Each structure stands twice: as C-alpha cells, then as structure tokens.
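QA checklist item 7 of 12: single-chain prediction sanity check.
[x] sequence parsed
[x] length recorded as 128
[x] structure emitted
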Amino acid sequence: MATDYLNKKDADFETWFSFKYQYVSQKCAGQPPVWAHIPQAALSKLGELHAAWKTAYSAVIGPHTKVDTEAKNDAKKAAKAAVRPFVNQYLRYFPVTDEDRTAMGIPNRDPHPTRLRRATGGSGVRSR
C-alpha cells in the first residue's frame, strides 16, 4: 500500500478513529449485517483506547501544557499500535466488505496483484 491509512495530523486522526470506532460498534451491536466475528473484549479494548485518545486530544485543543501534549502523543501512539492489528485481524476479511472498508477509510487489497518477475541476469535463456 502506497500510503498510510492512519492519518498523521491529529485532527484527521480524530475524525478517522471516531468514525471507525462508531462504525464498528454499530455493526457489532446489530446493524445488519451483524459482525459477530469481533470478540466483545477486542471491541471494548478499542473503545478504551478511543476514549483515552479523545480525552487526551481534547486537552490540547486550546491552551495546554507540555504534559498535555505528551499525554496526547502517548495516547495516539497506543491507539495506532492497537488499531493496525485490529484492522488486520477483524476488518480485512468477510463479513467486512470492500464497501465497509472504503467507508471506514481503510484501503482494500488489490484484487489483481502484480506478479514480480525474478531477475535472471542476462538473456534469461539457460545454456547447458
């Protein structure tokens, strides 16, 4: 994938993380089709990280201290570290669709990956 789907700017990350958490929560809570493949413990952990991020991010919107900034950076680092495995384990495969991933801002896998050719070093013809 050419670009990182986890936004670098805090405001963009806030928007993306909040929307993704809300989207996943609704699907797990019964919005058809229901995503029963995500364990409640994994969703709860994501919710805790989301709450910690929102609290830390809200503290730096206005005047803030260096400690507030460090707390925000730590919360973002922890969220990103948990989001990547969550996406790869629960949101890359059925029942999550390409449309779901697009809506959440998660890139879809290329359905027709390009094969890499092995370098042969020369004409590519073997001699005996």
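[x] summary fact logged: The two ends are 41 Å apart (CA to CA).
[ ] second reviewer sign-off
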